[in-house]
Write a structure and sequence with these properties.
By secondary structure, this protein is α+β, with helices and mostly antiparallel strands. The chain is built from 66 helices and 44 strands. Helix 29 (731-760) packs antiparallel against helix 32 (806-831), helix 42 packs across helix 43 (1222-1239) and helix 51 packs antiparallel against helix 52 (1426-1433).
């Protein structure tokens, strides 16, 4: 029984204590005066009566009621029901109060006195029971008595209220009355443990919705802070009550304040979790809470801060719960779409709905906690049951270890309370116990069917409802309410009277006396055994996450163990890898422990060395996949085994398995040891009681066995039985049992102290091996005690054992182990009630145990060292290049597989990785060479290497190898040659050695200076690098470079004092520029000492030789070829040439990064150039680099303009300028310069008139040949694509980056057929920023694009005729630079603004591309697939961008306009575009010499910053690797793919350059400009005498030399067309991923260092000379992708024939001629043959050039596109095909065979007459058909003798041959079976033979041909 109300108070406004207008409340009266013993009076109630603060108001407000909840120090909840009404204050009281505080506040009184004011007063009832409605009625009644002045004294009513006593639970019904003519019925719940919720849960769901409440529910369970906001206090209380109700059976144990007063808001910043309600009035104060989830009840929202992550329910459950909840709350949803919805689907009444929702949550918890009782460990039964929950086992069996939500719930306080409350096996049970034990089966069967779940939920709801409302509702309530008028006349109402204390106290005392004399109410509590429900094991197996074919795996494990114990070691060795793989599965690991168990006899199993080794390996493999909490109990099962298996090492010395399996997390995890200990204790205690029972109940059990229940009694059932019997035992018996249990626990503790010392002390205690990986040094017991501790960190690296502290260290290991065991013992012994004496005994015992164990280990360690080491594979030496030296010799490592799956055997093929071998660091490369660890491929050699200069990223990793037990440190090295090495150092490699390796690697990767790179140091010893260099140079060269540099410096001094522009720093101060060099737009002034400012601009005699050298340079040779002038005629200034070679830059004074000789217009003097160059970034002014030989248009390159120059540049020339400033004059000169270029064009000089129509037409007519007319309109389309115009918006790119992907890839573009020469007209995706067109004059580019609005009648618009001519010069400029420039409509040049990709973009894109092509680890995430990563890298989009601009420029040049490319600093994108334009426009550059020239001219001479972009030295390390040149090569590769017949070099040539441009093997791609190369004396040494002929300094010489020897660089399909301009497709869909990025040859490493390759090839060819007696050998050789070099294993036909030819010549002893000569001979004979027999039918040329210019010549027959070596493509252009079937673009097979010009009869395998039906409406005609097997075709002739073939059916196109039926017009009198049809990909041919037999033969013959093919 309990009191309905503990205290009654009257709380009023405190007039005395008003602080600055803030009122306060005070308790006016309180009954009873003294506290009850069982419930003290809660403090601070006056705050809660007015949570928003006590205030006076001018208008009375309606009475209010709410219940606040206070929690006292014993965590008991007190419910304070507050009833508040408003009373008027008379003036007098106020004035008194005001007077007392007038000195504090001045304005206050004036405000308040104006009218009557009202103060709040509250009646408060404090109770420990939660009966909201009853309290509302009682307080309402008291108020009514007061207001309506009823005749009952208030004291009586209050006295009755305080003395009313009701039962707590049991489902009784009480009627109470307070003596004012009222009557109320109170129903108590049947079961006290179930929460009472009224309709608060349903209300909460209505306010917030399903998802939000589930969110809050999960947040509360995972201990987050939750804050409710509402403007109603009662709703806050209800919401909090509802949230707690759905958490049942868990109880919330943190701060719980449903209504928080405003004064206490700082509570919200408490660090602990809470559930708190606050009035929305204080919303603004809650805004800055960073980690609180705020639920707004009035608005229905839940807001979660960013930093809070809430784990939600695990998946199928979350979905099921939501479904059922929506069926409860919104039953109409399900039938909303039905055509005939049921008549009524109203949700239940609120009260019922409330219980249904709670039913859903009960069902949810039953799902979550099912089987929890099987994971309880009972450690003590007497005197009190002590129970622990085995979390790991529970999660493991539910296979939810990864589930965040469940982990947090099980770790939480609520669950700890749940275990201690519901753990005991003998107690009263409730609804939840029944549900989780007896209905699991039902829940599991129904969970998939929501309707069945709903029915179950409704049953639960019924029970819950019955619990709250045990009796049908009785309408006996009768409570007065205040009458209407009394409510209205509150103004003149008298205040609430003071009550008579004595009268109320009397009431209370009487009642107390009565209570004492009354007999105690005894309600027998029904205790019973708590049912456990079905064990968890079955549950998981039903879900069936057992691995596929696991039975087979288990068999492998069993067999292997049997072999080991039967000593069949070879068999075991074969099975071992399979076993280690199988042990990844849980079932196999369990199987292993069971199998091993059977081989243990009397706790011991002695093995020999090899057996021991295998068993230990299997144990390690099993343990390495166990998590630190060991959720599957594998480590637990192995624990007894590791102390059983052992081997004899010597006299009396035994090594146990535990000394070899210590390196696992699980042994250092306190949780694991605790749960192990508890489960063992439980087993022993169970055994203890089973013995006693066995003694007593022998006979009893026999009868039981007869009845057939032979089930084992679980420990919990035993404990329950013992608890039931406990009260019946005598005191002595009780004491004896307690003592027995205690000593059981104690003996287990000793046993575990021993076990732990076994597993924690390392074999070699002097090393701190163990400390490094484990967390033994942690002093406090934390659940995750595997964090490495500080002691470990500090000691791990100490190798200084010679310092004499050896003992100290070993004792340190001992100490930490002792500390760990002590912590363990303290924890478990306190929890399981071990006596203090025993605990002390344990503490003294532990150090001795550890010390003793260390001593035995020392002997074992000594002996184990004497064992012969395990055989490791012998290390293989790599081949080195001449001049390459080892920096660090072999270090044994394992090469770990990365994300490329080909080598691991996952995609089929042999598992080549992981491999074991050694890593070598040389001056040039990093090389791994070894053999695969898989014994099946053990004889292969795996090589992976890359140049050290290409290393882009290195990071440390730690690796666990499948074969070993140790975690090794490793490195992951990534190279920009698309190679990745993941290596793990073998344990024999000391970690300081690994560190030395890293340091050396860094030193080699980033030398101080370019002279430290391999290309310079090759063949010298590393220390003397720089001295050697100065000696090598020949004298003349030396003076040359000195003089050049000097003059350069002087003149620089002169110029740069006035205008401070950037020049690359000289070597002395290079390093200091590191930071600035990161930026691309640099402007640094170089300080020059004043003395060197003398003027020197004449060429001295010593410099004259430079000129001759310069002339030999690439630029000059090319200028002469293009007819742009020679040095001699430039010096004599012959005026007839439009251009001249200027020597203004010979000293590199005008522009440091340009070559010494430049092509400029004839009319521009050198002085002008020196002024103009300042307008351009880096002084890179426009120079001519190529001229179109047909249209004489020129291509210029320059850097972007400096921002200043732009506007002046575009000002119209005749703008009045008051003072000609310097800027104006330079811009005028710039204009002159451009005008000079335009004037040089013949088309300009011809048209002379500016915009006259005649001029316009004449230029057109004069320059356009027939093909030109075709091309004219295209430019407009191209220009639109590149610039973008208003109609283009859908295809635009966003700024810089190639915007959203969808926009980049233009799918709408149809592929144009091979015939159409002109590129597609569609949009290409525009480079223009989206929609910001206003920045440019809208007609920029419009006259180019030629957009005019057509007339409505379809005729051409007038604009077409009035349109201005195309501009003479187009400037491709960077859009960002060209803002603000006005276009003058009469100028002859036009600016095409485009957005260029900046260098950072290229750098990032490349990083992503590398990660896509060479991922570091394999992933199953679909978002990380190769194609997805490739797309995200945007590499293809960047290629598209560069190609697109290049094609536009090609088009412009081809139509006769000149183009100036003026982007960024003129050395990245500009270089790419300019080089591609020349490559596409000029066939010369597609030959070996031409391409070399192109790269030397545009990339090397014009100063692409190779060293800086390649991060080749320490100075440029921070700027990172940016592969601008690689991007160019990739573009060339894309063009090569589309035009395979136009290039003399093969794809391999491009790969070769791509590899060596980063490898630093050659000097060609070092340094940033010619100036720097001269300064270092590199530029002209190639022409000097060579010291070491085997070391090639230039990549070009090397390629030439190699090309003479072997055709690897040659493209056999090369058959160029004269003056062919290429126009590749540039859409992303047309681009292919370059196989350079993805291919790899593990058998020999990269194939680009040819010397290594050649030598390796020759070795295997020697042995066959000996007579081979071993019997027949297979001639077949398996070719593995990623291992073999395809081109070597399967060379293409021509290469193979050339090789055979060479070997035959060698055999015959002839001198073999060069391959090129042989090839040329063959080609020439081929040509002459073709001419001789040129039939009218078709030309039979092999590799002859086609005359059809319209046909895109990208098609060819690819015999073999090999990775290395030549791609021989017999490119047979099907020329004017006279045959009817082959379509252009697919070469007809016949041409393939025309080289065998044989007589046709040889090829006729079957012939005869057939009738053939003609095309539509044509008759059947007899024809002579010939089936030719050799050529694989069916030909037909007019008659047998006819030689002229009428037509050919390619058998390759035939799909089927089928019997047919006669059709119209068929020949008469022929049987039906003689007809047959031939179906090809194009059409169906109908045939008819003479008779059925003949038809059958034809069909068979054709069928045979098809099947043979």
């Amino acid at each position: 029984m309990a009191r309905l109300a503990d205290y009654f108070l009257v709380v009023g406004y405190d007039l005395d204590k008003r602080v600055e207008g803030e009122g306060q409340g005070r308790i006016l009266q309180r009954f009873p005066e003294k506290d009850w013993e069982d419930s003290p009076f809660p403090q601070g109630i006056e705050l809660f009566c007015q949570p928003s603060g006590w205030q006076l108001v001018p208008e009375p407000q309606p009475a209010s009621f709410f219940v606040a909840v206070l929690t006292d120090i014993n965590s008991e909840r007190h419910y304070c029901a507050c009833f508040t009404f408003w009373e008027g204050l008379d003036k007098l009281q106020l004035q008194k109060a005001e007077a007392s505080e007038a000195d504090e506040v001045d304005e206050e009184p004036a405000v308040v006195q104006s009218a009557q004011v009202f103060a709040p007063k509250s009646l408060v009832l404090v109770s420990r029971l939660d009966y909201t409605e009853v309290f509302r009625n009682c307080l309402g009644l008291i108020y009514t008595v007061h207001v309506d002045g009823l005749s009952v004294p208030l004291e009586t009513v209050i006295g009755n209220l305080l003395t009313c006593v009701i039962p707590i639970a049991g489902g009784s019904q009480r009627t109470i009355t307070l003596g004012a003519g009222d009557r109320q019925v109170i129903q108590t719940p049947i079961d006290d443990s179930l929460p009472v919720s009224g309709s608060s849960v349903a209300q909460l769901f209505r306010q917030l919705g399903i998802v939000n409440v589930l969110y809050l529910f999960c947040a509360a369970l995972t201990e987050h802070k939750i804050l409710f906001l509402s403007s109603s206090y009662q709703r806050l209380t209800d919401a909090c009550r509802g949230l707690l109700a759905i958490m049942f059976p868990l109880k919330y144990s943190f701060t719980y304040v449903p209504i928080l007063p405003g004064k206490l808001l700082e509570v919200l910043s408490t660090p602990t979790p809470f559930i708190i309600g606050v009035n929305s009035f204080f919303r603004s104060e809650t805004q800055e809470l960073l980690d609180v989830i705020i639920a707004d009840l009035d608005g229905g929202t839940v807001t979660t801060p960013e930093c809070v992550h809430i784990s939600l329910l695990p998946e199928p459950l979350l979905q099921q719960t939501q479904t059922v909840l929506s069926m409860v709350l919104d039953p109409e949803l399900e039938v909303a779409d039905h055509a005939f919805p049921p008549v009524s689907t109203q949700p239940s009444a609120l009260k019922i709905q409330d219980k249904e929702i709670r039913g859903v949550f009960l069902w949810l918890f039953a799902q979550l906690f099912q089987g929890y009782r099987w994971c309880l460990h009972i450690i003590r039964i007497h005197p009190e049951p002590v129970i622990r929950f085995h979390k790991a086992a529970f999660l493991g069996q539910r296979s939810l270890t990864e589930d965040d939500f469940l982990m947090k719930v099980l770790d939480g306080m609520a669950f700890a309370g749940f275990v201690s409350e519901r753990g005991p096996p003998y107690r009263a049970t409730d609804l939840f116990d029944d549900l989780v034990a007896n209905q699991v089966e039902r829940i599991r069967q129904e969970e998939a069917c929501p309707h069945k779940v709903l029915n179950h939920v409704k049953e639960l709801a019924e029970k819950l409802f019955k619990n709250e409302n045990p009796y049908p509702s009785v309408a006996m309530h009768k409570v007065q309410r205040p009458s209407e008028n009394s409510q209205n006349t509150a103004q003149n109402q008298k205040p609430f009277p003071g009550l008579d204390d004595v009268a109320v106290e009397l009431f209370i005392d009487h009642a107390a006396a009565r209570f004492k004399t009354a007999p105690p109410v005894v309600k027998a509590e029904l205790k019973g055994m708590v049912p456990s429900g079905p064990p968890l094991g079955d549950i998981v197996d039903r879900n069936g996450n057992v691995m596929a074919n696991s039975a087979r795996r288990l068999e492998v494990v069993r067999n292997c163990i049997t072999y080991i114990f039967e000593n069949k070691m070879l068999e075991a060795k074969k099975l071992m890898p399979a076993v280690l793989r199988a042990l990844k599965g849980r079932a196999a690991r369990v199987c292993l422990t069971q199998e091993l168990n059977q081989h243990v006899l009397q706790n011991r199993a002695v093995l020999d060395d090899q057996q021991f080794d295998y068993i230990v390996r299997m144990m390690n493999c099993t343990l390495q996949d166990c998590s630190h909490i060991d959720e599957h109990g594998i480590a637990a099962a192995l624990l007894p085994l590791v102390t059983a298996f052992c081997r004899k090492l010597g006299a009396g010395i035994t090594q146990f398995a535990y000394s070899c399996v210590q390196e696992h997390m699980v042994w250092t995890t306190m949780q694991f040891w605790e749960s192990m200990f508890y489960s063992d204790v439980q087993n022993h205690i169970r055994a203890l009681y089973l013995e006693t029972e066995d003694g007593e109940q022998q006979n009893n059990s026999e009868q039981q066995d007869g009845s057939g229940s032979g089930r084992e009694i679980s420990a919990l059932e035993l404990a329950s039985e013992q608890n039931r019997l406990w009260p019946t035992l005598s005191k002595e018996m009780q004491a004896e049992r307690v003592q027995k249990e205690e000593s059981t626990v104690f003996s287990q503790a000793i046993h575990y102290a021993n076990r732990m010392s076994y597993l924690l002390l390392p074999l070699d205690t002097s090393k701190n091996r163990l400390l490094r990986s484990s967390g033994l040094g942690d002093v406090e017991s934390v659940s995750n005690s595997y964090v490495t501790n500080s002691i470990a960190g500090s000691m791990a690296e100490s190798y200084d054992t010679e310092s004499g502290f050896e003992d100290a260290e070993s004792s340190d290991v001992a100490n930490s182990v002792v500390r760990f065991i002590n912590r363990f013992v303290d924890k478990v012994c306190n929890e399981s009630g071990v006596t203090n004496e025993h605990l002390k005994a344990l503490h003294t015992m532990i150090p001795d145990i550890v010390q003793m164990h260390i001593e035995t280990l020392d002997a074992v360690h000594r002996e184990s060292k004497r064992l012969p080491p395990i055989q490791k594979p012998k290390l293989l030496r790599p081949m080195l290049l001449p001049g390459e030296e080892l920096v660090m010799d072999a270090m044994r490592v394992h090469l770990i597989p990365d994300g490329r799956e080909e080598a691991t055997g996952l995609m089929g093929g042999p598992p080549l990785l992981p491999a074991e071998g050694a890593i070598f660091l040389t001056t040039y490369r990093l090389i791994f060479k070894g053999t695969p660890t898989d014994p099946l491929v053990g004889e292969q050699v795996v090589t992976r290497s890359f140049p050290i200069a290409s290393l882009t990223k290195e990071k440390r990793i730690s690796v666990t190898l499948p074969m070993d037990q140790f975690v090794q440190e490793g490195l992951q090295l990534r190279s920009c040659t698309f190679q990745l090495m993941k290596i793990a150092f073998d344990e024999e490699v000391a970690s300081d050695l690994a560190e030395v390796f890293r340091k050396h690697m860094h030193k080699l990767r980033y030398p101080q200076h370019v002279q430290g790179t391999f290309a310079f140091t090759v063949g010298q010893c590393g220390k003397m690098v720089v001295e050697h260099k100065t000696k090598d140079k020949n004298q003349s060269l030396k003076t040359l470079s000195k003089n050049l540099v000097k003059t350069a410096k002087r003149t620089i001094g002169r110029q740069y004092v006035t205008r401070k522009k950037y020049s690359p720093p000289t070597w002395e101060n290079r390093s200091s520029f590191q930071s600035e060099l990161d930026e691309d737009e640099i402007s640094v002034s170089e300080e020059v000492d004043q003395s060197s400012l003398t003027l020197s601009s004449t060429i001295r005699s010593s410099d004259r030789q430079t000129m001759s050298n310069v002339v030999e340079r690439a630029c000059c040779r090319d200028y002469q070829r293009l007819g742009l002038g020679t040095l001699s005629n430039s010096l004599t200034r012959s005026k007839n040439e439009p251009f001249r070679i200027s020597t203004v830059n010979r000293m590199y004074t005008v522009c440091r990064s340009y070559p010494g000789l430049l092509i400029v217009p004839q009319s521009i003097p050198d002085t002008t150039i020196q002024r103009i160059c300042r307008c351009y970034r880096q002084n890179r002014f426009p120079v001519v680099c190529w001229r179109n030989s047909r249209t004489k248009a020129v291509l210029l390159r320059s850097a972007g303009l400096h921002a200043k120059g732009v506007v002046g540049f575009f000002k119209s020339p005749n703008a009045p300028a008051a003072v000609p400033s310097q800027a104006d004059s330079t811009s005028l000169e710039q204009e002159k310069y451009l005008q000079a270029i335009i004037s040089s064009m013949p088309s300009y000089s011809e048209s002379s008139g500016r915009n006259t129509l005649s001029g316009f037409t004449s230029t057109h007519m004069s320059t356009s040949d027939s093909s030109d007319k075709l091309r004219q309109p295209k430019i407009g389309a191209l220009m639109k694509q590149v610039m973008g115009t208003k109609e283009d918006l859908p295809g635009t790119f966003s700024r810089g980056a190639l915007g959203q992907r969808a926009k980049v890839i233009s799918l709408s573009q149809p592929k144009v057929s091979g015939k159409a020469r002109n590129p597609p007209r569609g949009k290409w995706g525009s480079i223009r920023g989206s929609g910001r067109l206003s920045a440019y004059n809208p007609d920029v580019g419009t006259r180019l694009a030629g957009k005019e609005s057509p007339q409505p009648n379809g005729g051409p618009s007038e604009a077409l005729f009035l349109r201005q001519q195309k501009a003479y010069l187009y400037i491709i400029g960077d859009k960002a630079q060209l803002k603000g420039g006005k276009q003058d409509s009469f100028q002859q040049w036009e600016v095409v603004p485009i957005e260029v990709c900046d260098v950072r973009q290229v750098k990032n894109s490349f990083k992503k591309l590398m990660k896509a092509c060479v991922p570091s680890s394999s992933t199953s995430d679909p978002n990380m697939s190769f194609l997805r990563c490739l797309e995200e890298s945007e590499w293809m989009a960047l290629l598209h961008r560069v190609l697109q601009v290049s094609v536009l420029v090609v088009e412009l040049l081809d139509t006769g306009s000149s183009v100036m490319v003026s982007l960024e600093d003129g050395w990245d994108v500009t270089t790419q575009v300019v080089s591609l334009v020349q490559l596409l426009s000029d066939p010369y550059y597609r030959t070996f010499d031409g391409f070399r020239l192109l790269v030397e001219k545009e990339w090397l001479s014009f100063g692409h910053r190779f060293s800086h972009r390649g991060a080749q030295t320490l100075g440029s390390q921070s700027s990172g690797f940016t592969p601008v040149f690689l991007q160019f090569l990739d573009c060339v590769h894309q063009i090569h793919l589309q035009f395979p017949m136009e290039f003399e070099f093969s794809q391999y040539y491009l790969k070769f350059l791509a590899y060596h441009y980063v490898s630093n093997r050659f000097r060609t791609f070092l340094l940033d400009s010619d100036y720097e190369r001269i300064e270092l004396g590199v530029l002209y040494e190639e022409k000097g005498e060579r010291k070491s002929p085997q070391v090639c300094k230039s990549v070009w010489d090397y390629i030439d030399r190699l090309n003479k020897k072997t055709p690897i660089f040659y493209n056999y399909m090369f058959s160029p067309e004269d003056e062919e301009v290429l126009r590749p497709y540039t859409f992303i869909s047309n681009l292919k991923v370059w196989d350079f990025y993805t291919e790899e040859t593990l058998s020999e490493g990269p194939s680009y260092d040819w010397e290594l390759r050649g030598r390796q090839e020759r070795v295997p060819e020697e042995p066959p000379e000996k007579p081979d007696t071993s019997g027949p050998k297979s001639q077949r050789h398996i070719v593995w992708p990623c291992y073999d070099s395809l081109s070597k294993a399967v060379p293409d036909a021509i290469t193979k024939l050339l090789q055979d030819l060479q070997s035959l010549e060698a055999e015959l002893g002839q001198t073999s001629e060069k391959w090129k000569d042989t090839w040329d001979k063959i080609k020439n004979t081929q040509r002459t043959e073709a001419k001789l027999e040129s039939k009218p039918s078709f030309s039979s040329s092999l590799l002859m050039s086609s005359n059809l210019s319209h046909q895109r010549r990208s098609q060819g027959v690819y015999l073999q596109e090999s990775g290395v070596g030549s791609s021989i493509n017999l490119a047979l252009d099907c020329e004017a095909s006279a045959t009817s079937t082959p379509v252009a673009g697919r070469p007809s097979t016949s041409t393939l065979y025309s080289q065998f010009q044989s007589t046709e009869s040889e090829n006729r395998s079957f012939e005869g007459i057939l009738f053939k039906k003609g095309a539509l409406l044509k008759p059947w005609k007899p024809r002579w058909f010939v089936l030719d097997k050799t050529k694989h075709q069916l030909r037909y002739y007019e008659s047998r003798r006819d030689k002229e073939c009428k037509g050919v059916i390619e058998l390759a196109d035939v799909e089927s041959v089928t019997p047919a039926t006669p059709t119209m017009g068929a020949p008469k009198n022929i049987e039906d079976k003689a007809f047959f049809d031939l179906k090809t990909t194009k059409r169906v041919y109908n045939f008819c033979a003479q008779d059925s037999l003949n038809a059958q033969m034809w069909m068979d013959s054709v069928q045979n041909c098809l099947s043979d093919a």
